[in-house]
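#lab-general

N.A. 3:47 PM
ok so I finally got the sequence cleaned up, no stray characters, all 307 residues accounted for. can someone with queue access submit it? mine expired

B.Y. 3:52 PM
send it over

N.A. 3:53 PM
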Amino acid sequence: METMRDRFAPVVSRLLDEDPRVAVVLAEIGKDAFREAMARHPDRVVNVGIREQLLIGAASGLALTGLRPVVHTFASFLVERPFEQVKLDLGHQDAGAVLVSAAASFDWPAGGFTHMAPGDVALLDTLDGWTVQVPGHPDEAETLLRHAVAAGDDKVYVRLSAQANRQGRVIDGEHFVAVREGRRGVVVAVGPVLDAVLAATEGLDVTVLYATTVRPFDTAGLRRATEAAGTDVVLVEPYLAGTSTAAVSDALCDVPHRVLGLGVGRRELRRYGTIEEHVAAHGLDARSLRDRIGRFVGAVGRVAVGA
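B.Y. 4:20 PM
back already:
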């Protein structure tokens, strides 16, 4: 199956051809996928080598000249390692760019903890003015990439993952999508965890909202859902557990509510394993989610998740 990252380079290469403002900045990773685009646009496809701080600094400089830089590498090298440059070169200078990550929380287990970044969205949450997109399917990744590049001079983070749902959804780059409706709580599934959430909540009387844009948080969409389903809210995020619980509490600050944040735990898993084993270890597989969500909404034992 085609991955989100497989879709990334062809889409951005077409955008380079279509829009003279678009530029691409790389740090070795992903350079082969842009070889042809670099030959066509040598002045707008830049490889800075293994220098992630320079990666962000160069993108900022291009943005300040009026270009729209698309910056790509693994999430740990795109957000965590050059965070000071993200904060100052982009944020402090109010320079816009599209940061597109790969590897997500643990998509390359053999790379070890240096190539894992479950805290990337939480880290960006300490900064002002970032849009954060978390597609759950290659089709959605293409839609969100095009939205991000077209978003004027905004600062946008697009989080690509090797994990994906079986089918893409129609998304608009702003709002949550109601996938299932119920009356005993709301479950917000972010990006590639949707399939597991749907399996986990099969037969439970809950509303399932699908989120691919998590910043800005769709406050109005959540409030509409809670009017019918109640104010017990479960967040299932493919990154650090609890990253968006404050956003939920802010959205529901004027009404009594409960919120449960599920996601990647803080404990470092020191064995490589597989993606599926990491998913299970963090309790993000359908069986674990069924138990945790069911207990929270008071529905444990009613429905068993199939093998």
